[in-house]
Specification:
Blueprint: E1 16-20, H1 25-35, E2 39-44, E3 59-61, E4 67-71, H2 72-75, E5 82-86, H3 91-103, E6 106-109, H4 123-126, E7 134-139, H5 154-160, H6 163-166, H7 184-207, E8 211-216, H8 217-223, H9 226-235, E9 252-256, E10 261-265, H10 269-278, H11 283-286, H12 293-298, H13 300-311, H14 316-325, E11 330-332, H15 336-341, H16 343-347, E12 351-354, E13 364-367, H17 391-399, H18 403-411, E14 415-416
Parallel strand pairs: 1-2, 1-6, 2-5, 6-7, 7-8
Antiparallel strand pairs: 3-4, 5-14, 9-10, 10-11, 12-13
Helix pairs in contact: 1-7, 7-8
């Protein structure tokens, strides 16, 4: 049995997280925590739920092959959570959130800056009732600054944060600034948020106090410009788009085979020399224009067509076989069908199937968690919940509400409970 399906407790077992986030950045963070054993109480709007529930098709299919109301987008970031539908715009709903916050270690929200203060659910209000609470606010632009009031969306952030200026074909090849094909600004913000929260929890062990974390999509986007951003700050030169080429390593990109493109990533001079020998062009290793990486970077426009002229004579499978044998880093350009059928991906269980109350067949197949622990493994216990699936269960468990009180709250439109 793979460790990810072991029955041992996860590394965050016992942690209680109140999740007021939606869309992708916050849910990415809380799904990670849920996979690691934390109890996630996901607050959703009655009768509507998380915005991404409607972001389809595709939607999960039921046993008859018909679309359900569960979008693939929503399910991508909401595994291992409990859905509790509460209207936090109403005073009784706000009181429920406050009572839950008393019981939780962490609260994550991604409302616009200042929105939750209107309901008495901001950090300053909640720390009065739970001084140990770690409260993480995820916004588009941060809680301060001239853009703090603006809503933030991944596409906007990719444009404003510079990554689109680095992605896509060069101008002279008819290219234009291009966003990444997934919501990477959201996802990376969720990853930074998880690190920040775990750091704050560690600090709480010493002080006993919680704290407020202010994290924004734009800040995170700028932070992961990494070498390209540092290159600009050091040189003052705005880097151009280079398509699939690397700014400071050559050859490092896609090359033509007789059937399709493939990747060569020669990261040092010795790998480059072996590449030249393998493609039958040893003279390219001896040419002073190309002998050292710094020279190859300066003369890339001369070198790359010479390599292409050799590689386009054979199919990609040939080059992948001989280059790997020669110790030259290389690989295919897979579509998603090829990715999920790759034997390494399958061996590492990066696609997992879970039973789901609305699904036909074996359930729903989702992307697996990449973390592998020897003693406290990741667990897949709950499929992404349908809206309000756990409202009653969580309000009884954490607040001790009676059946009569729950029925009253539902009748007044404060909460929604799943009808079986």
């Amino acid at each position: 049995m793979n460790s990810k399906h072991n029955t041992s407790s996860g590394p965050l077992s016992g942690l209680k997280v109140l999740d007021l986030s939606r869309i992708l950045a916050g849910p990415t963070c809380t799904q990670l925590f849920g996979d690691l054993g934390a109890e996630i109480i996901k607050i959703e709007r009655p009768l509507k739920g998380d915005d991404t529930r409607f972001w389809g098709p595709p939607f999960l299919k039921d046993k008859d092959g018909n679309d359900t109301t569960e979008s693939a987008y929503y399910m991508s970031a909401n595994r291992n959570k409990n859905s509790v539908a509460v209207d936090l715009t109403k005073p009784q709903g706000q009181e429920i959130i406050r009572d839950l916050a008393k019981e939780c270690d962490v609260l994550i929200e991604n409302f616009k800056a200042g929105d939750l203060a209107r309901y008495g659910l901001d950090y300053d209000s909640l720390r009065e009732i739970n001084p140990a609470l770690i409260y993480c606010s995820i916004t588009g632009f941060g809680m301060t600054g001239p853009y703090a009031h603006r809503p933030g969306y991944d596409f906007l952030i990719q444009g404003m944060g510079g990554i689109m200026s680095l992605t896509g074909k060069p101008d002279d090849e008819g290219g234009e600034p291009t966003k990444c094909g997934v919501g990477i600004a959201d996802v990376m913000c969720g990853m930074y948020a998880s690190t920040a929260i775990l750091s704050a929890l560690h600090a709480r062990h010493a002080s006993g106090n919680g704290q407020h974390i202010d994290i924004s999509l734009l800040d995170c986007q700028v932070a992961w410009l990494i070498n390209q951003g540092a290159g600009y700050l050091v040189s003052g030169e705005v880097p151009p788009r280079r398509g699939n080429e690397h700014p400071t390593i050559v050859p490092y990109g896609t090359f033509s085979a007789s059937d399709q493109a493939f990747i060569i990533a020669a990261g040092n001079d010795s790998q480059y020399q072996r590449l030249c020998e393998t493609i039958g062009a040893p003279e390219l290793a001896e040419d002073e224009r190309f002998a050292k990486n710094k020279d190859r970077v300066l003369n890339r426009r001369d070198l790359i067509p010479l390599i292409d002229a050799r590689t386009e004579t054979q199919p990609s499978t040939h080059w992948l076989e001989v280059l790997e044998a020669a110790g030259v880093p290389c690989g295919p350009v897979n579509d998603l069908a090829q990715t999920f059928s790759d034997p390494q991906i399958q061996h590492r269980e990066m696609a997992v199937t879970m039973p789901h109350r609305e699904a036909g067949g074996d359930g729903v197949t989702l992307i697996g968690n990449p973390l592998n622990f020897s003693e406290t493994p990741v667990k897949y216990e709950k499929a992404p919940p349908v809206r309000a699936e756990h409202t009653k269960e969580m309000l009884v468990k954490h607040l001790g509400l009676s059946d009569e009180k729950i029925a009253e709250l539902e009748e007044n439109g404060i909460i929604e409970c799943l009808k079986n």
